[in-house]
Amino acid sequence: MSLRTLHRSSAVVVGLFALVHITNHLWSLVGIPEHIAFMELARKVYRQPVVESLLLFCVAFQVVSGLWLVMRGWKQRTGAVAWMQAISGTVLAFFLAVHVSAVVFGRTVLALDTNFYYAAAGMHVPPYGFFFVPYYFLAVLALFTHFGCAVYWQLQSATAGMRRLAIGLPVLVGVAVSVLLVLSLAARLQPFEVPARYKATYTHPKG
């Protein structure tokens, strides 16, 4: 079995989790308590030791194999879709590596519940918002773009219009979802206050 095939198989596991995770974050538009209730229900599944171990393995494999595929095909890559796939994959690899590490660090070292407030805290402590706004926006957009590229390559026998739609529609959805998630985390769509213990992870003691 080729590395690319294994990469695609691993992507199914990571993609399913990402779908649940994004749905969970969109649920914050209904209300933060509703979002957390959704999260607690989902955690009963993905925080099972076997499931979580498989998920973490797939994330690590996805990052390493994705970057290897990008580097291996760098000089041979031609066409806008191929470059969109490579760039979105690189952004995703960076996000997965940083985000999963941050969640593990928050749970094990900081002893925090890595919930909505943990994700939002950086948006509410200047100047970290300048990092987290593009960080979240580009990560979600990259996910949808990468998915669109994968569908595009699978539709080799389809019309040119159908193939363009296969990649264009996910990109448009990705932009919309990215905007909603960033606005939600920034408390622009529903008011909330990030608890001090979460903000404290971005502050430095004086003296």
Describe this structure in words.
It is built from eight helices and no strands. By secondary structure, it is mainly α. Helix content is 74%, strand content 0%. It has one domain (3-202).
Helix content bin:
over 70%
Radius of gyration: 18 Å
**Largest sheet geometry:** none
- The number of distinct structural domains comes to 1
H-E order? HHHHHHHH
The SS-based structural class is: mainly alpha
Low-pLDDT stretches: none
Total number of helices? 8
How many distinct beta strands?
0
Provide the β-strand percentage band.
under 5%
Mean pLDDT: 93
First and last CA, distance: 58 Å
Question: Can I get a quick summary?
Answer:
By secondary structure, the protein is mainly alpha-helical. It has helices at residues 3-26, 32-46, 49-72, 80-108, 116-120, 129-154, 160-185, 196-199.
Topology:
Blueprint: H1 3-26, H2 32-46, H3 49-72, H4 80-108, H5 116-120, H6 129-154, H7 160-185, H8 196-199
Considering the chains and any ligands shown, give keywords for the structure:
8 helices; 207 residues; mainly alpha; single chain; globular
